[in-house]
Amino acid sequence: MTPGIYVRVYAATLVLALPVAAAIALMLSVTQGVLGFYGGLTRLGSGEVAVTGYSLSPFTALVNVTMAEEALGVKASRYELFTLAEYNGVFLIVRGTPGSGGGGSGPGLPGGCENCCIVGSEASGILGVRAGDVVLLTSPFNGRRVPVYIEGVADSEPYRYELACSMGTVLLLRGAPPGYASVVYFNASSVNASRLPGLSVPGNLAGALIVVLSHAGPAARAAAYRSVSDAYLSTLGFSSVVVSAVDIAVSTIVASSLYAVGVYAPRLIAGEVRVLRLIGVSARRIKLSVLAVEALAASSSWLLAYLLAGRVDPGVRLLLHPVHGGVDPAAYAASLAAGIVILTVAVAGWRVE
Fold this sequence. Notes:
Radius of gyration: 27 Å
Number of domains: 2
Largest sheet: 10 strands, mixed
Oligomer: single chain
Protein name: ABC3 transporter permease protein domain-containing protein
Keywords: Membrane, Transmembrane, Transmembrane helix
Distance between the termini: 15 Å
Number of helices: 11
Strand content: 15-25%
Number of strands: 14
Strand order of the largest sheet: 6-7-5-8-4-3-10-1-11-12
């Protein structure tokens, strides 16, 4: 076969396979981004352990701070209360932090201003809110409308897409009593994990998330997870392994669309193939050559889509936060393998005349 034939088959396969590869990369990227969303909110520091309640999200989880401290036998280093609020038809995260003037874990809340908030720089642009504005937030939990004064703008993570307010303001929006938080943080070196019956954590406890399932008095039943996404998936009865398996299955199904590519590309060289047959080139050799070129082109498409997935913002947002995670290598590789198998089936069924 001449170089021109190879180039035409390669170019056609590359162009047609690239959208398929890009769709798979985007799907996997968004899936991982959603799973990593809660982890990005909690921002576990080095040598920290986080305690949260048994809930599907930190927006509904409530933990009694004092009870968590008694359960672990140590004072909390910091704690945060998350809630949702609606402003002009847009829902966003409101983060409550104790203390003022930079106390707690906030970006420097103004002292002595109970209803003051700091707006994230990105949230400011999306919502059209500036320092000095008074905005009316509506709680989706209890319908309460709370006016807050925007004291300043924060340009640091994770506050860029949120409002950071005093704990009292967020308690009003959440409808929670004082002394409760969504996530309570502890110094791992001080935590007495043996006080929690049945808690089993392999290796170092630092960085683990402990989900408090129930507690009565100082006792608590808990489970520890290595990532926030694993913890919340567990409340649905899933695990990260199950999610990866679903990703692989869906990616493989999408990759099956390469059958059409495998059927179409050989038609572009039908004339040249007839000439090759007349001069004695076997159908088997032609098929193997075309399949090799198509497989190479499909691999190139997958590689290109993988590289682009890390640079292109898919434009998906969850509560103002952009959702863009890494592509699961196992699922992505499985989809490419499935695609090459599909191409093989398509070329095998090609009637070389």
